[in-house]
Amino acid sequence: MTPSAIVDKIDAILPQTQCTQCGYEGCRPYAEAIANEGEAINRCPPGGQQGVAALAQLLSRPELPLDTSCGQPQELKLAHIDESHCIGCTLCIQACPVDAIVGANKLMHTVIGDQCTGCGLCVPPCPVDCIEMRPAGYEWTKTHAEQARINHQARQKRLQAVHQESSSLAARTLANKAGLSQAASHDATTKKKIIADALARARARRASV
């Protein structure tokens, strides 16, 4: 079996949530690290112990306990945006690895529920804390994983066409919005003022419409 074929088989087992909890930029980079660098097979919380067992069988490696330092397995939750507080900063759109959030700069954003992988990457960059993860009410399946892979690959291809740099796509896009994304790192008083100012501007725009 060729190295590429081995990576494909590992990637097929991974859940394709693209959550980065494993420490890699997505499921494919983690699969490559497992195949080519001997990375541990137990670093995927969404895949759970069942995923570890499948990888162990594929690679003839010992089955290890799930590495909970990467996170705990949880029920599938999908992102939900409180549209009444959304200020249209686009940070969540840029953070989403599968293009499951639509909107435009200074316009309300919304989540396409059946495309969301539940990765939660959109939550930390939101400067007004208007995104929460809610139970999906269904289990993540191989069909969901395959569609998420397709969506992720399409996004990567689109972004690579625009950005030729080798640095992380997520890091580059978030860096373009430094003024807002840094709000989360300020002390509580400063963060509150930044958020209040952003909300005030958003309400003023809506009032003028």
Strand and helix map with partners:
Elements: H1 3-13, H2 27-37, H3 48-59, E1 77-81, H4 91-95, E2 101-102, E3 110-111, E4 131-135, H5 142-162, H6 169-175, H7 178-181, H8 188-208
Antiparallel strand pairs: 1-4, 2-3
Question: Your description of this structure?
Answer:
The protein has 209 residues and is mainly alpha-helical. The protein has two domains: 3-70, 3-methyladenine DNA Glycosylase II, Chain A, domain 3 (Orthogonal Bundle), CATH 1.10.15.40; 83-138 and 170-208, Alpha-Beta Plaits, CATH 3.30.70.20. 44% of the residues lie in helices and 7% in strands. The protein has helices spanning 3-13, 27-37, 48-59, 91-95, 142-162, 169-175, 178-181, 188-208, and strands spanning 77-81, 101-102, 110-111, 131-135. The strands form two sheets. The protein has a two-stranded antiparallel ribbon with strand order 1-4. A hairpin with a 7-residue loop joins β2 (101-102) and β3 (110-111). α1 packs across α2. It starts with a helix and ends with a helix. Mean pLDDT is 85; it is low at 169-185.
List keywords for this structure.
44% helix, 8 helices, elongated, two-stranded antiparallel sheet, Alpha-Beta Plaits, 209 residues, mainly alpha
Distance separating the two termini: 61 Å
Largest sheet: 2 strands, antiparallel
* DSSP helix fraction: 40-55%
Query: Any idea of the CATH class of the largest domain?
Result: Alpha Beta
Which percent band covers the strand fraction?
Answer: 5-15%
User: At CATH's second level, what is the architecture of the largest domain?
Assistant: 2-Layer Sandwich
Structural class: mainly alpha
Strand-and-helix sequence, N→C? Answer: HHHEHEEEHHHH
Chain-averaged pLDDT? 85
* Overall tally of domains: 2
Assembly state (oligomeric) = single chain
- Provide a count of the helices: 8
By CATH, the topology of the largest domain is Alpha-Beta Plaits
- The count of DSSP E runs of length 2 or more, i.e. the number of strands, is 4
Strand order, largest beta sheet? 1-4
